[in-house]
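TASK: fixed-backbone design
INPUT:
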């Protein structure tokens, strides 16, 4: 067996030594971002007072109600959704072997939104039933979109960056058109507001009684995906090499697609379509701790939680008292980042995209 060159070995060892420090720093950043998210808003509360309220627990009082009933669920949902989108983005990039993959760009978020909108327009479930039908429909839409994009990108030969992006954009346009059609045909103002929420993304409707499902799906999904770290590393290194080492790439890819779609679908059912988190955060994490998924996935999870928490803070304070949809904030940051990566990818492949 050929020996690995010394330089890559040194780089891998340096990445491994750096990972614990990065995890500690991101945990501190997440704690600081959470305190800022609880303190800032139309009513500003001093950080020290926020900590006193959190330590004291829920109790009567105007500031305690703002912190515990209004801002805390929103901060927690932002952290859960950001972590989930970043982790699934990293996994999708390994599955399609392309760093431009993202739940939003590959149509998974749009598919989840279309599934949720179909439940609203068709009236499939009401009250308690909606809390079940919405995530199920979002999961089905997310999985259908991902499978369609992958099949289109692979059809007729090797999958290039240009083919993948074109397939993702095409599927995204079709799903967006269906969502817009549902918006036009919506009979009630309440339906219109709900459809706009899933189109633009938002965390303003976060409630304590709706946090358990997305948090549980994120925790279980991340643990399972961490268990797939080695097969993901093999697949990222090359399909032929992965097969040679005993990995059934077809079955593994199908199972990982289903798992990623489940996480994306459930999260989008509670947050709407929020783009570019799964593109930017894994790429930044990979630059810091390397491409190994055992370190990449937890770093991406913490990084995604910090990023979306801060994006939501900007969304609700930058134009106060008006609130900007958080999907608009992430798109303003992610759009230029995507164009930079597309240009870089085109140079690497020797094509224009």
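OUTPUT:
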């Amino acid at each position: 067996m050929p020996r690995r060159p010394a330089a890559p070995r040194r780089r891998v060892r340096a990445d491994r030594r750096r990972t614990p420090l990065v995890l500690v720093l991101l945990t501190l950043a997440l704690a600081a971002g959470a305190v800022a998210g609880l303190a800032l808003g139309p009513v500003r509360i001093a950080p020290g007072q926020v900590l006193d309220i959190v330590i004291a627990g829920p109790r009567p009082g105007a500031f305690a109600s703002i912190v515990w009933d209004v801002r805390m669920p929103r901060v927690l949902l932002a952290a859960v959704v950001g972590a989930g989108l970043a982790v699934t983005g990293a996994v999708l990039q390994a599955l399609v072997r392309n760093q431009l993959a993202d739940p939003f760009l590959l149509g998974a978020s749009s598919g989840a939104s279309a599934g949720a909108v179909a439940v609203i327009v068709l009236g499939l479930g009401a009250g308690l039933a909606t809390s079940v039908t919405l995530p199920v429909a979002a999961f089905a839409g997310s999985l259908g979109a991902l499978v369609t994009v992958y099949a289109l990108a692979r059809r007729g030969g090797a999958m290039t960056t240009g083919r993948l992006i074109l397939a993702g954009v095409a599927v995204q346009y079709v799903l967006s058109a269906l969502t817009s059609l549902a918006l036009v045909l919506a009979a009630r103002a309440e339906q219109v507001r709900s459809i706009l929420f899933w189109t633009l993304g938002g965390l303003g409707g976060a409630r304590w009684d709706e946090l358990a499902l997305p948090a549980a799906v994120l925790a279980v999904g991340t643990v399972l995906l961490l268990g797939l770290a080695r097969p993901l590393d093999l697949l990222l290194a090359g399909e032929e090499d992965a097969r040679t080492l005993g990995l059934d790439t077809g079955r593994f890819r199908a199972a990982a697609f289903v798992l990623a779609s489940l996480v994306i679908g459930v999260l989008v059912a509670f947050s709407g379509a929020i783009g570019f988190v799964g593109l930017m955060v894994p790429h930044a994490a990979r630059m810091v701790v390397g491409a190994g998924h055992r370190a990449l996935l937890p770093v991406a999870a913490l990084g995604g939680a910090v990023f979306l928490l801060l994006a939501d803070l900007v969304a609700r304070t930058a134009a106060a008292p008006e609130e900007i949809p958080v999907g608009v904030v992430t798109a303003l940051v992610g759009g230029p980042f995507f164009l930079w990566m597309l240009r870089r990818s085109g140079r690497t492949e020797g094509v224009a995209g």
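COMMENT: The two ends are 36 Å apart (CA to CA).
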